[in-house]
Amino acid sequence: MTAEPLDLLRTMLLIRRFEERCAELYSGGQIRGFLHLYVGEEAVAAGVCAELTEDDSVVSTYREHGHALARGVPLESLMAEMFGKVTGCSRGRGGSMHLFDRSRRFVGGNAVVGGGLPLALGLALGDRMQGTPAVTACFFGDGAMAEGEFHEVLNLAVLWRLPLLLCCENNLYAMGTSIAKEHGSTELALRAASYGATAWPVDGMDAVAVNRAAARAVDEVRGGAGPVFLELRTYRFRAHSMYDPDRYRAKDEIADWRDRDPIELLAARLRADGSLTDADLAEIDAEVVARVTAAVEAAAAGEEEPVEELTRFVYSDTSTAARSVR
Amino acid sequence: MTAKARSKATSSAKGPLVETTYRDALREALREALREDDRVFLMGEDVGSYGGCFAVSLGLLEEFGPERVRDTPLSESAFVGAGIGAAIQGMRPIVEVMTVNFSMLALDQIVNNAAALLHMSGGQYPVPLVIRMTTGAGRQLAAQHSHSLEGWYAHVPGIRIVAPATLEDARGMLATALSDPDPVLLFEHGSLYTMKGTLRADAGAVDLDRAAVRRPGTDVTLIAYGGMLARTLEAAEALDAEGMSAEVVDLRTLRPLDDATIVGSVRNTHRAVVVDEGWRSGSLSAEIVARIQEQAFYDLDAPVERVCSAEVPMPYAHQLEAAALPQVASIVAAALRTKG
Ligand SMILES: Cc1ncc(C[n+]2csc(CCOP(=O)(O)OP(=O)(O)O)c2C)c(N)n1
Ligand SMILES: [Mg+2]
Fold it and tell me: Does residue A189 have a pLDDT over 90?
């Protein structure tokens, strides 16, 4: 099954407007910590997550607002988390890099590069051992592929034929290090294939292409074929994080990629085939912006966790060990 | 009945005494766990066909099959992380890491995921995982197979650290660890696997909260755990001959520490010696000394002594290794020093 292009467009717009607002709020000091924006890469999250069912699990990175939104984690709880409020999806303990939502099987942003991969492997193993047909999708960057954990996980996932969808977001940079400086061989899908996984590269700026690839990949994985690796070729339009002066990329390079803005690309295609008018787009956009604005207001009004609760959730409330920290 | 309901500070099992070893007691605990709960599985390097690198899981593959006694490749980070994920997904994994030295390759998963997920997720993702590993020296395995790094793990909030030093605990700690909602790291001292003794046939789950007084005494408290317990008890016997009555406390759980038992004993004896196979600097032994002085400073008649491993990577040669480790004589000497 593939998604309606219009839904993909809506998801991408939601991510874009959410993050643009986050950047503003960051400058205003309401959001702190590290903030890694996904602007430019929205087609990946939108296209992949549209193919997942509610029983599937998602593991992400520190650049995970897009994945969380596309997965259906409520906008309000995400924004509240950015504000560090108790109403946030991680009760203010995670922030931008650690968004969790158990009810959506969104098992976190992970701020250790590569660190989500073994966890995702285990989610897939758990599903397999319990005989559920669920799939685990794990997002990670091109930089993570240089970590030993990637090698360990792909080898094991193939060996055990686990239902794992590996989504490598190749945005050509790991912070300021370009892919040619990180990898001896920059053909990432080829490398994954050498482990015995089905793997192919996808135009990560084209939401429909991503979605089609994801549909096929999820089918294979769910069918028991073992892990599939998608190399999603994409680009982040903004710096690595809000701290990054972005000195390592040529202005022309950024401009060239911006010409392939995934939102513009899909909107243009829909306009061309007559399924979207400028008025429709403006309406979707206004709707999304209104939702983001409401979420910001709710987040600002949200309660803070009292500091008396500082040491809660170090151990489970039901554990005798909880007393040792409280 | 749940393991929790059955657990008790020291086993009140009444069955006949049977001869066993530490290794067999651990295996019996694993077998029982695999038998009683379908969600439990054992995973690690050579746990299956090989029978476990210390033969703890010998025979379990034949009994439970390769799905539940699961050999893994040499991928410590991946399979420890897989245990975390599987636990979140509803399983009750027991992950075996061959030795604590190799667990350094999985440190990311243990510290950044297992210990942190519950808190980082605002309470949404408890990780009911048990990780077993071998620790300790005494077998001339030199500097990459002999260290006692459990104290490092005891530094980390979010995980429980236990160290069975007796047959009863080798038999009983696993069940309780599996019923814990959070990650438990279980440290088996390599020199204990062949320890022989008797155990009640119906021995079962034990608590993981309390330290145990293994020998009552009045003049000094000797605090030890894991591989150091036996020689600390020996030192206590030797001290009797010197006219000093030593009480021996077995920590059992290194995090959270049972301050009440430790401090309670020191309040009675007014003197204490901490025996720890880990290094002295920045250590668990330092933590225990700090807690004693925080909570019982005015009860002390002498500075608290420590007997730790020499601050060297563990050497191979037998005389060097022996010299690096706490020995009965050094424990006795430390206890006598507290008499002034
Ligand atoms: C283990 C580890 N090393 C280093 C870092 C610092 N760091 C954060 S993001 C990053 C780059 C990762 O690049 P990539 O995997 O391509 O993801 P992207 O940021 O491009 O989405 C680095 C080096 C980290 N968080 N974790
Ligand atoms: Mg990258």
Answer: yes
Q: Is the CB of A45 under 6 A from ligand 1?
A: no
CATH code: domain of residue A213: 3.40.50.970
Beta-bridge partners for A101: A106
Q: Is the Cα dihedral B208, B209, B211, B212 positive or negative?
A: negative
From CA A244, how far away is CA A238, in angstroms rounded? Answer: 9
Report the pLDDT value the prediction gives residue B10, as an integer from 0 to 100: 54
Residue nearest atom 21 in ligand 1 by C-alpha distance: A141
Q: Quick check: A89 and B86 CB within 8 A?
A: no
Nearest Cα residue to B122 out of A251, A138, A86, A289: A86
pLDDT digits (tens, 9 = 90+) for B211-235: 999 999 999 999 999 999 999 999 9
The closest alpha carbon to A109, from B105, B122, B87, B95, belongs to: B122
Host H or E run for residue A13: helix A5-27
DSSP state letter for B258:
-
C-alpha dist (Å) from residue A289 to A10, A46, A323, B274? 11, 18, 45, 63
CA distance A200 to A190: 7
| Separation between Cα atoms, residue A12 and residue A7, nearest integer Å | 9
Residue located nearest, by CA, to atom 13 of ligand 1: A174
The SS3 call for residue B339 is coil
B17-200 fold? Rossmann fold (3.40.50)
- The tens digit of pLDDT for each residue in B101-144 reads 999 999 999 999 999 999 999 999 999 999 999 999 998 888 88
Best of B2, B70, B88 to disrupt the A interface (most A CBs within 10 Å) is B88
CB within 8 Å: B78 and A149: yes
CA distance B190 to B133: 9
For the stretch A103-121, pLDDT in tens is 999 999 999 999 999 999 9
Q: CA B261 to CA B251: how far, in whole Å?
A: 9
CA gap A105, A262 in Å, rounded: 26
Which of A88, A94, A119 faces B84 most closely, judged by CB atoms?
A: A119
Which tens digits make up the pLDDT trace of B28-68?
999 999 999 999 999 999 999 999 999 999 999 999 999 99
Range of the domain at A51: 5-325
The sign of the CA dihedral A35, A40, A41, A43 is positive
Tokens coding B28: 């019996």
> What's the CATH number for B212-337?
3.40.50.920
Preceding amide of B256 cis, omega within 30: yes
Residues 6 or more apart in contact with residue A7 via CB below 8 angstroms: A50
List every span in chain B annotated with CATH 3.40.50.970: 17-200
Number of domains in chain A: 1
- Copy the structure tokens of residue B316: 């191979």
What is the Cα gyration radius of chain A?
20
Q: Are A25 and A74 in contact (CB under 8 A)?
A: no
- The contacts of residue B107 (CB under 8 Å, 6+ apart) are none
- How are beta strands A136-141 and A164-170 bridged, if at all? parallel
Confirm whether B305 is a catalytic residue: no
- What b/e sequence results for A292-314 when a residue is b if at least 16 CB atoms lie within 10 Å of its CB, and e otherwise? beebbebbeebeebeeeeeebbb
